[in-house]
Amino acid sequence: MQIDLLQTELDKIIETSNNNITITDQDGIILRSNPNHWSIYGIEPDQYIGKSVYQLQEEGILSPSIHAMVLESKKPVQILQKTNTGRTVMATGFPLFSNSGEIIRAISYSQDQTEIFNLQEQYKDLEKKLVSYQNEVEELRGKESDYHGILYRSSSIEQIVRTIYRVSKTDASVLLLGPSGVGKSTFARMLHAQSSRKNEPFIEVDCSTIPETLFESEMFGYESGSFTGASKQGKQGLIEQAEQGTLFLDEIGELPLAMQAKLLRVLQEKKVMRIGGKKERQVDFRLITATNKNIEEMVEKEAFRLDLFYRINIIPLQIPPLKERREDIPILVQHYVQTINEKYSMSKKLHAVTYDILTQYNWPGNVRELENVIERVILTADEETIHPEHLPINFKNISLPVEAHATPEIEHGVFDDADWKTAIEKTEKSLLLRALERCKTTYEMADFLSLSQPSVVRKLKQYSIVRKR
Ligand SMILES: Nc1ncnc2c1ncn2[C@@H]1O[C@H](COP(=O)(O)OP(=O)(O)OP(=O)(O)O)[C@@H](O)[C@H]1O
């Protein structure tokens, strides 16, 4: 009765265990096992009892057999088995000895670990990807704020820089979209400089400036004497000049429909025929296009060919105007004040209020306008310090936020009815706000203010100044 109960309990344990428990005798004959788990070995549950593990090993069903190993070594063994159903099984085996020290049983527990191994593989894959992304980020971060001449602090430009970095490794056509002066040409040059074609030509074509009558001869070139006025030697077209390099078609939205059709043919066939030529020439270039037009609307109005749009619009990148990424303005202002001073061997400075006005302005002409305005005021101001009145007329009605008004006090040392403590506090607060606008981190602020970083953090807290992220 007691034996029967033990037997039933053992059967139940084996049957319900999450592990595949298998017991063999000293000759490797399977005495008991859990029927639920044998499917991972590709064998029917009723086929294994009474079978020899050596035979199953020979048939390739157990490779290798843990029992065979335990019986041979007379020691506990742990192995990974690859089953012929493609599963990965972790098997642990133990010998069981009689009182006289003879091995009488081998018992194994095995568990299907396929999912865990798959996850491990995926994890390794992800780790590899992570390392490569980290390298990418490090590379970008190292050059952050000045990446191929592109200055930025905004996350929107950072995102674009990252995308450009990634697509520069491919030959995909990129379409740069955005209003005039946002930096489309600058990004196009950066993309080329970053690509494997960087040592080959970068040919920039402003589609709005080529007259329709000259389009073919300019773009495709011509053979000698092919038309009146043609050069005797013939001429290589712009597309051929971009061979192995990058062809940047700026203002593509200005291209008349007839020229769009001609361009499409070249893009489809990657071949050009010079005017007066007899055979087509194979061309290999990377295409970048840019426009400040709403090109999708042009497609809808049939002013731009849909098939050409598909060709150029593989990777569209929308560059936001400056007013939508205001955090880029201070760094651009500082950059242009410095470079334009250097260009003209000058050392003009912006008055704090001028600086505040420039950073509050909406810049409808974007970075180009910013660069031009700073150049103009540096050249025309008759004083070393550029005051608000030196700015063009359209800057007259800029209203500054309350904090900004505190800054002239520092310049002039004027504090109405203020006691010493209030004056110091006002000054400190103004300096902190100014540093905050110019700097990205509290470490940079500390550098800028010649303070320690903990002091900066403490003072920001003292004046309840919160840094924007
Ligand atoms: N992020 C930036 N950092 C530094 N300079 C920039 C940046 N973006 C643009 N610029 C400068 O602004 C000026 C205008 O840029 P760019 O010519 O690339 O603009 P665009 O969008 O191509 O203009 P358009 O549509 O009129 O051709 C250039 O002198 C360029 O160097």
Automatic annotation (TrEMBL):
Kindly list the residue ranges recorded as spanning the membrane.
none
Q: What keywords would UniProt list here?
A: Aromatic hydrocarbons catabolism, ATP-binding, Coiled coil, Nucleotide-binding, Transcription, Transcription regulation
Q: Which residues form the PAS domain?
A: 6-56
Keyword Nucleotide-binding listed? The answer is yes
Q: Its domain of life? A: Bacteria
| Entries under CDD domains matching the protein | AAA
SUPFAM superfamilies reported in the protein's UniProt record: Homeodomain-like (SSF46689), P-loop containing nucleoside triphosphate hydrolases (SSF52540), PYP-like sensor domain (PAS domain) (SSF55785)
Report the SMART domains cross-referenced here: AAA
| Domain Sigma-54 factor interaction positions | 150-379
Which InterPro entries does its entry note?
AAA+_ATPase, AAA_lid_NorR, Homeodomain-like_sf, HTH_TyrR, P-loop_NTPase, PAS, PAS-like_dom_sf, Sigma_54_int
Q: Which residues form a coiled coil?
A: 109-143
Name-wise, this protein is HTH-type transcriptional regulatory protein TyrR
Task: Please report the organism this UniProt entry assigns to the protein.
Answer: Planococcus shenhongbingii
